[in-house]
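To whoever is on call:

I kicked off a structure prediction for a single chain this morning and the downstream step that reads the tokens threw a length-mismatch warning. I double-checked the sequence; it's 652 residues and nothing unusual in it as far as I can see. Pasting both halves so you can look.
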Amino acid sequence: REGTGVGEFLDLKLMVDFCKAAGFQLLQLLPINDTTVFNTWRDSYPYSAVSCFALHPQYIRLEALGSMPPQIKEELMKGKETLNALPQIDYVEMMKLKGRILEKMYKVHKAEFLKSREFLNFFRDNQEWLVPYALFKMFMTINGSANFDLWGCRSQITLEEMEDLASPDTMHFDYIGVVYYTQFHLWKQLSEASAYAAKNNVVFKGDLPIGVNRHCVDTWVNPELFHLHMQAGAPPDYFSEYGQNWYFPTYNWEAMALDDYGWWRGRLSQMAKFFHAYRIDHILGFFRIWEMPESYLTGMAGRFRPSIGITKADLDKRGLWDMDRYTSPYVHDGILQRMFGGKWGNIKETFFEPTWGDRLKFKPEQFSSEKKIAAFLEKKSKENPASEADNEFVKSQLFLLFNNVILLKDEETPDLYHPRFNCEKTTSFQELSDDWKRIFRELHNDYFFVRHDELWKQKGLERLPIMKDATNMLVCGEDLGLIPNCVPFVMEETSIIGLRVQRMPPDAGVEFDDPAKYPYACVATLSSHDTSTFRGWWEEITDSQRESYWRNILKKDGSPPKSCATSIVEQAVDQHLASSALWAIFPIQDLLGFDEKLRRPNAAEEQINDPSNSMHYWRFRMHINVEDILASHEFVQKCKQLNEKNYRGVSY
């Protein structure tokens, strides 16, 4: 109830009260670092930090800043009333309001704040990241962009320059001072919540994103630690047939190793000030990362780093000589007719030109990359908004054609190649001769499932012990997706516990994981921020899947209902609590799912993120206040009973 359009750090104390009353011993958060890059709703994405150390201003409690003049308080109350009446977070208006109030409150308290012992101690302990962050925010404001490549002589910066620019006697210091003020109070409020959790024996678990924004403080100050010409993502999978492009630069691990991974150690030490445990987002990235060149928007044409590419000599030995056929988008009239129907002629004329035989190629000047194709179609949509849906369809189909290849050229080493992931599904592969199909199938399976295992095992054993040794936090790894054979061994060797999401079992051929068979060293859960909730999943799966889960997991007879009754959710939660897993952690939506009075009427509205959409607006907001959940004694007691029944309700 006290928040301003969004949950805030001090609200976590209420969540701790709920955990204590309901028998939960751990509270897990999504990433909480500042993500302000665009100053639009796109900054709502919590996994794209502008600083791996600074906290996000959206989580500040403005009333806790100190004495507030009446006119500022009136502005706050008016904005707060509007924002709190909304069913979802209005990220832009919420950030504008908090930004205005913070600037005004800084001016009110500036003189005493900058001289206070508490702030000076905070500055002493945090200046290594705080000063660069404040300068970055200043230049971002002055230049109207976080893209430091456009900042002229400030596109790079030295330590000496930072010291001069951040001097308190400069004319621009208020740009910097308000950032200090904001981060100090965020630190103070989160520290209060963390201490309250510890006092009440509730573990605070944080989330460590695998990447950083391309234009962030860390890449500005330490560009040598990143491959800024490449982007991280994930290959096509359960979530997206186009793969995922996270737009993060990939890490230069060799450069990071030169100072014994000091950047990672500093990042984790900062987290340890607030958290007792943390989740490594996409732990597979510590073994290898899926990366694409900057010109790509999808994740289809990625390759793993590190990897052992296939040489031209090796391809020659196998009788694979037609490199243009394998590496260029495979397009001809028949493919266009099948994909675009009656519009194929116009598509051909606009985007393609003839090459040898009956083959076509993308016009090289205009459409040599996914970004150029997208820019062309976005321009057409702006000129004629009514054509936007058609242009989106054309873009999605052209992206498939652009990636209709079997081999990818290595971006850094000539005459080195990588198989296109899932190339068997492409028409380029399907129209090969049977001999070539057989050879490419062998190459693909060896590349993705055999040849890298020892290399990736070595990388995991080099990097993950650093994560363990840097702090005393318990380390959990999100190990979903295309899992190399070496991952379970390395995680066991390094005592990092994995994740089990029931609907995504790690073993091929298994439809649903059985919580009764979970190992001790794992986190068990029904869903995540990247999936529908258990209720939503139940109502979106096929009748045959629902019946299989009903009979084989819930051990029930008869026919399952299509709508997810509270008793079904309760039994699924109960089974997870009863498992041998070290932790059973649930999105709060799944817990509310077994209370008819508290859960949302529409299960589809419970999902936080759509990972197939890289432009998803993260604006999910609970439909009820934490105070109302705490006051729901029947629900709280039900949670407590389930925890105690399964020996999870007693503080350790």
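Update from on-call: the warning came from a stale cache, not from the record. Cleared it. Sanity check on the structure: The radius of gyration is 26 Å.
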